[in-house]
Amino acid sequence: MSDTQDGVWLVVGLGNPGPAYAGHRHNIGYLVADELASRMGSTPGNVHWRSHKSGRADVVEGRLSLGGPRVVLARGRGYMNESGGPVKALATFYKVAPDHVIAIHDELDIAFGTLRIKLGGGDNGHNGLKSMRSSLGTGDFYRVRAGIGRPPGRQDVADFVLSNYSTVERKELPFQVGDAADAVESLITEGLEKTQQRFNS
């Protein structure tokens, strides 16, 4: 496994497309990708996603730091459980190995507001990760896991992830999104160990 900043990086925000899903817990990957795209633009907040020629994802290309490696930010145009196909198409097109792929996704087993950064592992029931592992033929890509916590009471897990954040959570959400974007930048420039030391608190 390479832990360097050489080569192109593919950073994928996992989520579901369309305004109906935009505020859901399952879509934090999209929110972090938007934040990174904003940082990449010459005008912060002015994000220009464009359709990739594969037709399966929207992308923004650029650099997150002066002199840093080239980064392709991506959001799939299909649903979460179909994430693998678009990711595989982009990885093939840009010649990105799995060890230069970063998936940003929601994580039930981590408290809201916290992050865990890791390399490899299973999918823990997450359909987006399951699809990626199947299409890439490996789970050895980086994950920025944004905690959403477990549903309260007896609420169904699927209903919980496909529901909006609470009023209290929405006030804290920008901080988690910002931290997750910082973690992606750190992974690319500092490597896994330093990023884990900083963010896996």
From TrEMBL:
InterPro entries: Pept_tRNA_hydro, Pept_tRNA_hydro_CS, Pept_tRNA_hydro_sf. It is an enzyme of class 3 (hydrolase). The record marks 16 as: Discriminates between blocked and unblocked aminoacyl-tRNA. TRNA binds at residues 21, 79, 81, 127. The active site is at 26 (proton acceptor). Keywords: Cytoplasm, Hydrolase, RNA-binding, tRNA-binding. PROSITE patterns: PEPT_TRNA_HYDROL_2 (PS01196). Its EC number is 3.1.1.29. It comes from the Bacteria. GO terms for molecular function: hydrolase activity. It catalyses: an N-acyl-L-alpha-aminoacyl-tRNA + H2O = an N-acyl-L-amino acid + a tRNA + H(+). The keyword Heme does not apply. The record marks 106 as: Stabilizes the basic form of H active site to accept a proton. It is found in: Cytoplasm. Monomer. Belongs to the PTH family. Hydrolyzes ribosome-free peptidyl-tRNAs (with 1 or more amino acids incorporated), which drop off the ribosome during protein synthesis, or as a result of ribosome stalling. NCBIfam families: pth (TIGR00447). This is Peptidyl-tRNA hydrolase. It comes from Nocardioides furvisabuli.
